[in-house]
Amino acid sequence: MIKVAFYDTREYDRASFEPFEGKNDIHFRFLETKLNEDTVELARGCSAVCVFVNDTVNAAVIDHLHEMGVRLVALRCAGYNNVDVHSAFGKVHVVHVPAYSPYAVAEHAIALLLTSVRRVHKAYNRTRDFNFSLNGLTGFDFHGKTVGVVGTGKIGRIFIDICRGFGMHVIAYDMFPAKDSGIEYVSLDELFTRSDIISLHCPLTDDTRHMISKDSIEKMKKGVVIVNTSRGGLIDAEALLEGLKERKVGAACLDVYEEEADIFFEDRSGHILNDDLLSLLISMPNVIVTSHQAFLTQEALHNIANTTVENILSCFNNDGICDNELCYRCGHMDQCRKKRKERCF
Ligand code: NAI
Fold first, then answer.
1. Which one is catalytic: 260, 337, 340, 343?
2. Total domain count for the chain?
3. Predicted TM-score of the model (pTM)
4. What is the pLDDT of residues 1-54, one digit of tens each?
């Protein structure tokens, strides 16, 4: 029997994972709490844990899981900045869902962008109040504008295709540019300088943390629109707030926020938000915040559940071998301790 402690369970998780309960001898222990050092003990007796973006899988949690005999951390998401993959080496396998619907995230980025630039959020509130005035709702055409895309992986590429459909000029930066893609790659600095819109689609790493900072905002065009559907830590939110106040940044569309872990995914209406920075950002007329919902489509949930279950079965029935085991790109393939299908981890 494969017992899986399923952390941070939401209604929509249950709906997509319950059909797999009992099949292939997988049994889920659905837990509402997030995984962290205080809650890791709840996985005792399980051979795997299933976690999401705001669960904490640091060295201490990994050691505790290892001591309890948990062999697998199955992420039901793509990003893995919340997992200390180095500490996991040799103790627990870590698998993720590399792609479940890149369309969901790219389309949400576009939804945020259109809403913001065409002031749809403002118009919606106005007409509900029978206010049919157009003052203050002037937007701009996407056609002919330059959009800078950081990260041209699965989501970034789809986002680029959609932008091209609007007749936008696309420039991009990626540490690993896609060969023969027809994408115009530029340096990060050039992207900051030339873009009317900047959309982030790269992972959060030590290199990318706070790539949107006071310095980078200074290089940008006045009125630039910044879209982040990737990870909150890519943006220094204080610097963004300053940029907005100084009218340098024209608008921000944020599906993620650096300190989202204890805030997003919960109904906090009626409570006082203990995050002044987020409160200020939300209060701005040109900032749209959604609470990490870019992935949330029926197709994505279906694919997440399928791939996660396949990953779990693959790990337990295939001697720990799973194509979706994480690779942290150590950059030293020759010295890599774990060579499998050219993955270093
Ligand atoms: P991917 O792995 O296909 O693409 C990431 C791209 O970023 C790659 O081309 C990679 O070479 C590039 N990259 C890596 N380091 C970089 C650096 N330092 N600077 C510039 N580019 C760099 O990943 P995918 O599926 O496109 O996802 C992108 C990100 O979207 C994920 O890392 C995740 O954080 C986020 N995401 C957010 C979701 C949401 O609901 N808001 C859902 C799914 C993913």
1. 260
2. 2
3. 0.89
4. 999 999 999 999 999 999 999 999 999 999 999 999 999 999 999 999 999 999
